[in-house]
Q: What sequence folds into this?
């Protein structure tokens, strides 16, 4: 059974799966609805996504509003630094962030709940990232905030990251309209 570790931000949870390995390789359960529900995490995901990125790529900070998405993120190959930023209006931890290294070696996963912006940067030569979502992607609700917002101060472990035009032109947190999670 996986171990569910709380982080400094309520709801953001590090999932450490039980890995059963031998000289043939390993087996692990990456998701179990019963165990996730017992840990207070969603029991249902409706969409899976997969991305591949090269070293130094930074994707984020992204969210969807008003149809929020919770995300269960894992790195299938390589290593990433995965970040969640609390953007819930009125939250006692509004504007705070947490980051965790996820890799094919440690096999950790990060659950990022609705109400958080999410992003990651690649610290290995290449990384395959997979994430499950609690709601379907709605293109008209796709949004983001500046990955380098000085008021948030995420300490990314890469210098001069490779980013998209969309991410480079995303607004600062203070310029976003207030958003609540229903």
A:
């Amino acid at each position: 059974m996986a171990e569910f570790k709380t982080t400094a931000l309520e709801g953001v949870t590090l999932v450490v799966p039980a890995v059963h390995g031998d000289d043939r390789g390993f087996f692990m359960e990456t998701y179990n609805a019963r165990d996730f529900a017992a840990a207070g995490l969603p029991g249902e995901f409706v969409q899976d996504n997969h991305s591949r990125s090269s070293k130094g790529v930074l994707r984020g900070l992204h969210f969807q509003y008003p149809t929020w998405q919770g995300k269960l993120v894992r790195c299938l190959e390589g290593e990433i630094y995965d970040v969640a930023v609390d953007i819930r209006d009125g939250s006692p931890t509004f504007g705070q962030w947490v980051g965790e290294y996820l890799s094919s070696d440690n096999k950790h996963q990060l659950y990022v709940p609705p109400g958080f912006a999410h992003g990651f940067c690649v610290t290995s030569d290449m990384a395959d990232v997979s994430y499950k979502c609690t709601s379907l992607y709605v293109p008209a609700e796709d949004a983001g905030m500046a990955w380098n917002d000085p008021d948030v101060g995420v300490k990314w472990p890469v210098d001069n990251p490779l980013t998209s035009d969309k991410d480079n032109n995303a607004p600062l947190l203070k310029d976003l309209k207030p958003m609540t999670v229903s």
Notes: Residues 45-175 form a domain with the Jelly Rolls fold (CATH 2.60.120.10). The radius of gyration is 16 Å. Helices lie at 33-38, 165-168.
